[in-house]
Structures are given as structure tokens and as C-alpha cells.
Amino acid sequence: MKKLLLIFLVLLSQIGFSQFGYFPNPNQGDIAGGLGLTWIDNQPHYTFHFRPEIAFANFGVGIDLNLEFDTQGNLRKENFNEFSDYLSIIRYVRYGQKHEETYVRLGALDYASLGHGSIMYMYNNSPSYDTRKIGLEFDLDFDKIGFETVYGNFGQSGVAGIRGFVRPLKWGESAPIPIISNLEVGATFATDFNKYAGVIEGTYIDSTNTFQIEKDKGATKIIGLDVGLPISLSSFVTLTPYFDFVKIINFGSGTAAGLMLDLNGFGLVTVRAKLERRWNGDNYLPSYFNSMYEIQRFALDTANGSFYSKAAGLNAFKDVGNGFYGEILVRLLNTFDIIGSYQRLDKNPKSGLLHLAADISPKEGSYVARVGYDKIDIQGEKDLFTLDDRSYLYAEAGYKPYVYLLVSLVYQWTFSPIRDADSKVIDYKPQKKIEPRVSFMYPFDFGPKQPR
Question: Which pTM was predicted?
């Protein structure tokens, strides 16, 4: 049952460090592709991948084609068994970047957030590579007012959210008020229209391999109010204190207060840090729509007929307890990326949630080292780094014999979908992948040369 409750997938091999909002620079691009031999569930598969990214001024596009063939030359079924699998070859099309005046992204949503993240934070609409989806982020900032939106899946009813905000002290004819003129007040509404989003009780019917819903609270609906004040301490340091209130309709409510630090050290170092204190009432969870949500929403264990839904878990939560959440993202010399976050609730010794990632791949270097590790329901130090049904691991180490050629070994402890008779995903199971890989990587610049 733990694997139904707690699965966290961050596919670093495909998504990179998008928490930093990293894309190729305007009029530049990267072409990456290669061949490998992967063992999936102890069965060998030949792999081919092709992943170019190209940027034209504010526009960008990313392609992600991954093919896996068994030893008889048959394409693995999970590669293309849904119409969305074909559409998701185009990983994303975008205009601008998050927090700019205009930002649009269509395709895979890796880390979609609204506001400070008390309702939706780092939401991932495609947590498994075998079940990729097409979603949308659309933000507009008119300085005095603006909005952020997220839509999770155009293929079926699912997660959607909108946050509108206003900067009231910027209205009027007077000059901006020092320090407090950037005060921002926001309101958020987010929901999930998926038919399993509000399931509280139900029965698995083995004879027809179906699930009968017996008690359903309907679409999940969450509202929130927030206030934040970005304070520019210098031209490269911003500190933002904030406060959020959240109510999950038909369930509980909670509040959070925190500080965010943004530091941009002239391209030498970029730091984003966040420390938050959370006060959680009964039947409430902060950041309800998160990286795990698409898997946590509903999962059915056909072996014993049990099921888990996030709504059922929420309905049962009493005396959850308050807690802390902290994260830090560091980029050194635009080369070394390090990310870490951790959550712990005061009264729950099994509430630890850890995310670690690092990418040490100098552009002109001869080596590549990437690792991403997630562990959920952590109980103690001995439990931190054991691989089980509460863990995800991605690791790649490689050497460049030539500047554009990479020979590497990839290891993944991940999850694959389990489908019912109608090919609907009803559960996920652990999956181990080991892949020796040869990749070709070529950065290019097709824009006009800038005068020195």
C-alpha cells in the first residue's frame, strides 16, 4: 500500500533542471540522440532516443522521441499505446519563461506552480515516461495585475488551476512607494475533474476487472488567498516574505508563512532558497497538487482488491500536525546544478520527504555526472538511502572520448503503469532499468553574431 500512497518521479534524464527555468538561449539549440541497451524488468531492450531543443527569440520547442525494442525487434507496447504518446513526441512548445511578462508552455509540465505553492507546487502532469500527457501553462503579468494558469491534460478531464493577483500600491498617479510598492495580493482556485478525484469508498469487482465507486465527494476544489512582498535588497538579491491561507472544499484548511531568497551573482552563482512553516488543520494537506499527484489521485491493487485515493487519505487525516518545509537550488558558473528539499511534520515520525539532485556536466569538460534521488515516508537516518517502493533513483555517469560523443551508464529505479482491461492506468509497480548508452550531442548557434 505504501507504493500507492507515496511515489515521487522526477525524470531528470528527460526534463533536466527546469526548476531553474533553463532553456537554450535565443537563436541557439541542442541536438542530443543516441543508442543503448536497456534491461527492463530483467529483459533486454534496444533503445533509440532523439531529444533536440531549439529556441527562436522568445519561442522554444523540445522534441523527445524514445523507442525501445525487444530482442525480436518488436517495439515495446508502452511506447505508443495511447494517442497522447504520439503527441508527446513534441515535449513542449513555449513562449517566454516563467515569471516573465508573458509565458506560455504547451506539452509536458515538469514543475508547474501557482503563487507560493500552497495549493499547486511543482505539479508534474507526466510522472511516468510511459504515460505522458499534454498540458498548458499560460501566465500574463501587466505589472499592476496579472494571472497564472495551469491545465494538466487535454486528453481527459483532470487538474486545472488559476491564480489572479494585483499589486494595489502601483495604482494611481503618484510615484512608486519605496520598498512596499511591490506588495502582491492573490487569489487561487484549483480543481481536479477526474472521475476518481473524490473517491472515498469503493469495491473492486474481480470478475469484470472493474472498480465500482460507492462514495464520491466529486471534483476536488481548493481555494486560497495569499500576500507577498518582494524586497530588493540589492540589484542581485531579493527577499520575499509571504503568507498563504488555503481551504479544501468539503475537507479542511491550513496556513503557511515563509521566506524566499533569490540571488543572482552576475552569472557566477544563482541561488533560490525557501523556508516555510506550515500550520495544518484536520483533513488538510499543503501543496495538494504536487509532483506525486497524478499517481496519488487513485491507485488500485488488483491482487488484493484494495485501493488508495488521495481524497480518501485526506478524509482520514486527523491531527496531521504542523511542520517545516525547506528547499535550496544552486547553480554555479552555469555549470554545476544542485537541488535539495526536505519536509517533516512535527507529530509524524514517518513524514520525511527528501528530494536531491545534482548535475555536474561542464560544457567543455570530458565527463558527465547526473543524479536524482527521492525518498518518501522517511522514518530515520537508516531509511534515507534504501531503494524500495518509496524510492526513485536516476543516475548517469559518462565520459566524452570526443567533444560531441558521450559514452555513459544509466541506472533508474522507477515505476511503470499497470492497466485494466480497458487499458486505463490503475496502479504502478517498481521497475529497474540499466542502460549502457552512446549519445551524440551537438550545440549550435544560428542567430546573428553579436559585436564584441
Answer: 0.81
Q: In the structure grid, which three cell numbers stand for residue 317, read together?
A: 487525516
Q: CB-based contacts of 135: which residues, under 8 Å, 6+ apart?
A: 106, 107, 108, 109, 112, 125, 150, 151, 152, 153, 154
pLDDT at 82 (0 to 100): 67
Per-residue cell: 198 = 473524490
Calpha distance 49→240 (Å, rounded): 41
Q: Are 59 and 23 within 8 A, CB to CB?
A: no
Cα–Cα distance list, 314 to 1, 28, 32, 285 (Å): 16, 46, 42, 7
Task: Answer with the residue of higher pLDDT: 88 or 14.
Answer: 88
Convert the pLDDT of each residue in 289-328 to its tens digit.
987 788 788 888 777 778 888 899 888 888 778 999 999 9
Task: Name which of 409, 431, 366 is nearest 36 in CA terms.
Answer: 409
- As a whole number of angstroms, the distance between CA 238 and CA 236 comes to 7
DSSP string, 200-213: EEEEEETTTTEEEE
Cα separation values, 276 from 84, 161, 279, 325, 402, Å: 37, 22, 10, 5, 45
Name which of 4, 98, 8 is nearest 374 in CA terms: 8
Write the secondary structure of 39-85 as one string of H (helix), E (strand) and C (coil): EECCEEEEEEEECCEEEECCEEEEECEEEEECCCCCECHHHCCCHHH
In degrees rounded to 5, what are phi and psi of residue 168? -65, -30
